[in-house]
Amino acid sequence: MSRILVVDDEPRIVDVVRAYLEREGHAVEVAHDGDAALAAARAMSPDLVVLDVMLPGRTGFDVLRALRAESNPGPAVILLTARDDVIDRVAGLELGADDYVTKPFEPRELVARVGAVLRRLRPADPAADAERSTAAGPARLPLADLEIDPPAREVARAGRPIELTRTEFDLLLAFAEQPDRAWTREQLGARVHGEEFEAFDRSIDSHVKNLRAKLGARPDGGAYVDTVRGIGYRAGRR
Hints:
By secondary structure, the protein is an alpha/beta fold. The protein folds into two domains: 3-121, Response regulator (Rossmann fold); 127-235, Winged helix-like DNA-binding domain superfamily/Winged helix DNA-binding domain (Arc Repressor Mutant, subunit A), CATH 1.10.10. It has helices spanning 11-23, 34-44, 60-70, 86-94, 107-121, 126-136, 166-177, 185-193, 201-215, and strands at 3-7, 27-31, 48-52, 76-82, 99-103, 141-143, 146-149, 154-157, 160-161, 183-184, 225-228, 232-235. Strands 2-1-3-4-5 form a five-stranded parallel beta sheet, sandwiched between helices. The chain has a four-stranded antiparallel beta sheet with strand order 6-7-8-9, covered by helices on one side. It has a three-stranded antiparallel beta sheet with strand order 10-12-11. Helix 4 links the parallel strand 4 (76-82) and strand 5 (99-103). Helix 1 (11-23) packs across helix 5 (107-121) and helix 7 (166-177) crosses helix 8. The chain starts with a strand and ends with a strand.
């Protein structure tokens, strides 16, 4: 059972989403504005927040920014955005949202996206990790001067940790595991969002942009992630 906070100023939407999520066995709390959302998040420490962008007073973006500032990575966040507002969706992803659903939405789609994000949060099976480590070598992966620890989901440079969101870490891990592979946006979308959803080009681009900004430049002046024209991305080359 996961703890989920649903934030929207429309009572009908909150009631429907709550009913569907509780039917799946989740513990659900609700809030109708930004201040109440932050108070509830601090009190319950949710695993995931379903967060409307257009809230009265403190907006969903303000709430997301505060959540990421208070704890990184903190809870997973799925934004609810207007169908035709691409700018909102991209802005939310750049602030660290894990996914988004456009309004009006089918409740079953939202439940499926919640499930996909929560599956990525669950700790891996230790036995499976051990088996993979034995087959693939050391658990820690290098990428240039970065040291990546997949089981702990941590990345560091010269012993100093670099804070990444879950999606950013999953992207970095993909590049480190297969440094010579050129990944399409669709392949990266399936890797970080799950096979059940079609990848959105703009969302992958936004996450890669955030990842690059946090990593900065390599010691040799190159990038940790290169753009492959006409295809997508791959690990940076010298």
